[in-house]
């Protein structure tokens, strides 16, 4: 055993004997919709998936969704300042370029961004519901870019028949006001939901060297509709709209006026789908589009960034009700920015086998034909073995690839000769379940990427004059521990620990914590009063080489508190306190993070 992994296995021993450890509790009926092409019971999935229930998202102690996701094992984040400024969520050390984000079936990653990823900076939990995080290289399931994993987000969904809704308002530090309206309707044939949210905040200085406030305002709307036209035919629509304006500080900080930097962003996406059942074969056809229109203003100069994605999907499944299910599909995608355009055609197949009641196997193969490159073949194999009713062994091996983004192919920053990155990923996990949805889980993981594209600020090869994209290698490995235990009907403890040893070109990967611990205590204090305290400790993190010498990227501990009191059966008062003990820290060198901040609000359902 290597010296680096010895403390990790000591931590595993401690967790195995403790009554509690991490993440959301789930019961035997919980399903995953992204591990395989067809919905799969979580205890039959060989891939590692974190499932976060809608009520956990709604009651999260953090407004920014990316910050809340870091309570899950293997997930970390960094941001360039307050709400709205650029934020990256990483899975097992790999950032936004390797983690596609899907909201209601719409790929919302930005085709015009330098890495092709999704910016979590302004996405709050308002109006959002269930979230799944799939880990490891997943190109055989999702095509290019899915090397770190996939984050699948649902918006609000109806949970009971009739028309229902809620209104939520919140106000607090930094002159922050947030409001959400959610409406749902369900009949025997139709599911309909709509949510709209608005947030405004004065914020604080993004730059650690400045004192001016960097504010943010945004409106977000989500729509979901599914209608059963006939017994074997359903049609549906999902849509998302985001309009935001965010003040920011240039890299390195703005210590002098005019403090005039700000970004505007208008993003809109839609997906039309139809589902048809023909005997043992089910079919789904979907058309989706996503457009991001961003403009960055600095010193009176406007820099536009516009990206578009259009996609058509077909997915089929043949299920005889026996020991095997055959899934298959095809898709075609077009992406473009202001300078270039690409298209990708994908074909995939997946075989799900259940040779015994205790064993499930999944095998996936996908071929992607990229307009700029040769075809790429991706594969995945996964196993779930229920050794005992309460003991599950999971294992998976998968490879993947990521094509250069449009920006990385542009000679000004990148290189038209760049070739796709290729990866291989393994994980091996063991889960023990206890009564009352308690569990403890340990997962070993390993990922390697060849020809990884990264930005080198010292490179002079391209025409930018201040750095270029180059290619190198990445290796990441470690262990994730998680669990939950109900001490009694009113008190539960949960937590997660992740050890990540990640290297980029032989050096420590930047902004990736080697040790990440999250502990939480949930309490139903009285029939009307509930509360939660969350403690998160980050240790051994390497700042970016761009960080100023005075940066505060390093070990830090955050404590968050939230509580809810039911004033009536339909109205509750809520309190959130982020960074309770006012920790002074940075996740991106030279950019501030929030100090202690309290927020109070009301939520009314009808």
UniProtKB/TrEMBL annotation:
Organism of origin: Roseovarius azorensis
Motif window: TonB box: 30-36
Subcellular location: Cell outer membrane
The name this protein goes by in its record: Vitamin B12 transporter
Domain of life: Bacteria
Range of residues in the leader sequence: 1-22
GO molecular function: siderophore uptake transmembrane transporter activity
SUPFAM superfamilies, sorted: Porins
Domain TonB-dependent receptor plug intervals: 44-150
Keyword Transmembrane tagged: yes
CDD domains in UniProt: ligand_gated_channel
Chain segments annotated as transmembrane: none
Membrane topology: Multi-pass membrane protein
Example GO BP: siderophore transmembrane transport
């Amino acid at each position: 055993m290597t010296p680096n992994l010895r403390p990790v296995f000591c931590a595993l021993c401690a967790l195995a004997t403790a009554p509690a450890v991490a993440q959301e509790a789930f019961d035997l009926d919980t399903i995953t919709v992204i591990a395989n092409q067809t919905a799969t019971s979580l205890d039959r999935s060989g891939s590692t998936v974190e499932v976060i229930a809608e009520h956990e998202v709604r009651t999260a102690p953090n407004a920014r969704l990316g910050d809340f996701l870091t309570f899950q094992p293997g997930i970390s984040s960094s941001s360039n300042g307050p709400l709205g400024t650029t934020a990256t969520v990483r899975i097992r050390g790999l950032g936004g370029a390797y983690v596609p984000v899907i909201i209601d079936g719409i790929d919302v990653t930005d085709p015009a961004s330098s890495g092709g990823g999704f910016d979590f900076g302004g996405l709050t939990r308002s109006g959002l519901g269930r979230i799944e995080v799939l880990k490891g290289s997943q190109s055989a399931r999702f095509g290019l870019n899915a090397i770190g994993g996939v984050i699948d987000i649902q918006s609000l969904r109806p949970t009971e028949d009739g028309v229902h809704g809620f209104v939520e308002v919140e106000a607090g530090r930094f002159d922050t006001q947030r409001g959400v309206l959610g409406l749902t309707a369900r009949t025997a044939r139709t599911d309909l939901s709509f949510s709209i949210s608005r947030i405004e905040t004065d914020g604080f200085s993004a730059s650690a060297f400045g004192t001016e406030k960097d504010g943010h305002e945004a409106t977000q709307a989500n729509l979901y509709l599914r209608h059963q036209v006939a017994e074997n035919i359903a049609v549906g629509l999902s849509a998302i709209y985001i309009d935001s304006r965010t003040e920011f500080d240039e890299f390195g900080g703005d210590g002098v006026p005019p403090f005039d930097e700000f970004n505007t962003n208008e993003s809109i996406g839609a997906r039309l789908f139809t589902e048809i059942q023909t005997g043992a074969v089910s079919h789904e056809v979907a058309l989706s589009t996503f457009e991001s229109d961003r403009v960055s203003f600095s010193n009176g100069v406007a820099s536009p960034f516009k990206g578009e994605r259009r996609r058509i999907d077909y997915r089929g499944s043949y299920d005889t009700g026996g020991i095997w299910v055959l899934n298959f599909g095809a898709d075609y995608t077009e992406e473009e920015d202001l300078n270039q355009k690409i298209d990708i055609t994908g074909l995939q197949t997946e075989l799900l086998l259940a040779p015994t009641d205790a064993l499930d196997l999944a095998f996936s193969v996908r071929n992607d034909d990229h307009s700029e490159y040769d075809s790429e073949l991706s594969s995945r194999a996964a196993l779930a073995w229920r050794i005992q009713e309460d003991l599950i062994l999971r294992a998976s091996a998968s490879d993947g690839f990521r094509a250069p983004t449009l920006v990385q192919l542009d000679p000004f920053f990148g290189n038209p000769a760049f070739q796709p990155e290729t990866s291989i990923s393994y994980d091996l996990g063991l889960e023990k379940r206890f009564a009352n949805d308690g569990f403890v889980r340990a997962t070993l993981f390993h990922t390697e990427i060849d020809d990884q594209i990264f930005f080198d600020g010292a490179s002079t090869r391209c025409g930018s004059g201040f750095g270029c994209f180059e290619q190198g290698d990445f290796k990441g490995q470690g262990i994730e521990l998680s669990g939950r235990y109900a001490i009694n009907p009113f008190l539960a403890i949960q937590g997660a620990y992740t050890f990540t040893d990640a290297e980029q070109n032989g050096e420590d990967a930047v902004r990736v914590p080697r040790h990440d611990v999250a502990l939480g205590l949930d309490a139903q204090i009285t029939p009307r009063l509930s509360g939660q305290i969350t403690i998160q400790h980050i240790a051994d993190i390497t700042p970016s080489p761009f960080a100023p010498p005075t940066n505060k990227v390093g070990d830090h501990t955050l404590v968050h508190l939230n509580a809810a009191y039911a004033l009536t059966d339909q109205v509750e008062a809520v309190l959130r306190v982020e960074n309770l003990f006012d920790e002074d820290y940075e996740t991106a060198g030279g950019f501030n993070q929030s100090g202690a901040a309290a927020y109070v609000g009301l939520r009314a359902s009808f």
